[in-house]
Amino acid sequence: MIDLKELSLVSGKAAWMAYLDIYCLDADGALFDAALLAAAAAFSHCKWLTFLYVAVQIPVVSLNDDGRIVVVSKQNEVEKLKNKPVNEEKRKLKLKGIPFALTCILHKNYILADPTAEEESIMETLITIVLDSSCQLVSLYKPGGPALAYESVIQDCIALSRQRVRELQTILNEAISDMEVD
């Protein structure tokens, strides 16, 4: 999802680390799907130097003569530094293919997509399919439970996931364009 080169400050020497905590206030099934979509939305919209929604400033930094990172503050403004700052411009974080997940449960001869917590409680088997924005399979997760007898069940779940990707891409793009602030 994130091109690690985007986080690089100085090749081979320094890079940003991106952390994202997701707090679930209420869960009614398919929690992983919602959390992945929230993470994709957060990283799709963040800008370096300013995270708009949590008002955390990522500082401008420079390298000193020893090759260590120096935070540029008002006391040691850019003019006083010997070396030019390495991240002086705002820029959007570029993502490689946003992942989208769809959880399906199998109960008897039925496939149910995006189950509620109550529906998850009666399931026989759960499958989570993760596709990227070009509908390529990224991950297939099937925890314990009975083995699947038919490959067609997995193919049906992937087909449902492809349909969901198109729906979620539209929703995510609209939400992000509504939040654009320069």
Automatic annotation (TrEMBL):
<keyword id="KW-0694">RNA-binding</keyword>
<comment type="similarity">
    <text>Belongs to the RNase PH family.</text>
</comment>
<dbReference type="GO" id="GO:0000467">
    <property type="term" value="P:exonucleolytic trimming to generate mature 3'-end of 5.8S rRNA from tricistronic rRNA transcript (SSU-rRNA, 5.8S rRNA, LSU-rRNA)"/>
</dbReference>
<dbReference type="GO" id="GO:0000176">
    <property type="term" value="C:nuclear exosome (RNase complex)"/>
</dbReference>
<dbReference type="GO" id="GO:0016075">
    <property type="term" value="P:rRNA catabolic process"/>
</dbReference>
<dbReference type="InterPro" id="IPR050590">
    <property type="entry name" value="Exosome_comp_Rrp42_subfam"/>
</dbReference>
<keyword id="KW-0698">rRNA processing</keyword>
<dbReference type="GO" id="GO:0035925">
    <property type="term" value="F:mRNA 3'-UTR AU-rich region binding"/>
</dbReference>
<dbReference type="InterPro" id="IPR027408">
    <property type="entry name" value="PNPase/RNase_PH_dom_sf"/>
</dbReference>
<dbReference type="GO" id="GO:0071038">
    <property type="term" value="P:TRAMP-dependent tRNA surveillance pathway"/>
</dbReference>
<dbReference type="GO" id="GO:0034476">
    <property type="term" value="P:U5 snRNA 3'-end processing"/>
</dbReference>
<protein>
    <submittedName>
        <fullName>Exoribonuclease, phosphorolytic domain 2</fullName>
    </submittedName>
</protein>
<dbReference type="InterPro" id="IPR015847">
    <property type="entry name" value="ExoRNase_PH_dom2"/>
</dbReference>
<dbReference type="GO" id="GO:0071035">
    <property type="term" value="P:nuclear polyadenylation-dependent rRNA catabolic process"/>
</dbReference>
<dbReference type="Pfam" id="PF03725">
    <property type="entry name" value="RNase_PH_C"/>
</dbReference>
<dbReference type="GO" id="GO:0000177">
    <property type="term" value="C:cytoplasmic exosome (RNase complex)"/>
</dbReference>
<dbReference type="GO" id="GO:0071028">
    <property type="term" value="P:nuclear mRNA surveillance"/>
</dbReference>
<keyword id="KW-0271">Exosome</keyword>
<dbReference type="InterPro" id="IPR020568">
    <property type="entry name" value="Ribosomal_Su5_D2-typ_SF"/>
</dbReference>
<keyword id="KW-0539">Nucleus</keyword>
<feature type="domain" description="Exoribonuclease phosphorolytic">
    <location>
        <begin position="97"/>
        <end position="163"/>
    </location>
</feature>
<keyword id="KW-0963">Cytoplasm</keyword>
<dbReference type="GO" id="GO:0034473">
    <property type="term" value="P:U1 snRNA 3'-end processing"/>
</dbReference>
<dbReference type="InterPro" id="IPR036345">
    <property type="entry name" value="ExoRNase_PH_dom2_sf"/>
</dbReference>
<dbReference type="GO" id="GO:0034475">
    <property type="term" value="P:U4 snRNA 3'-end processing"/>
</dbReference>
<dbReference type="GO" id="GO:0005730">
    <property type="term" value="C:nucleolus"/>
</dbReference>
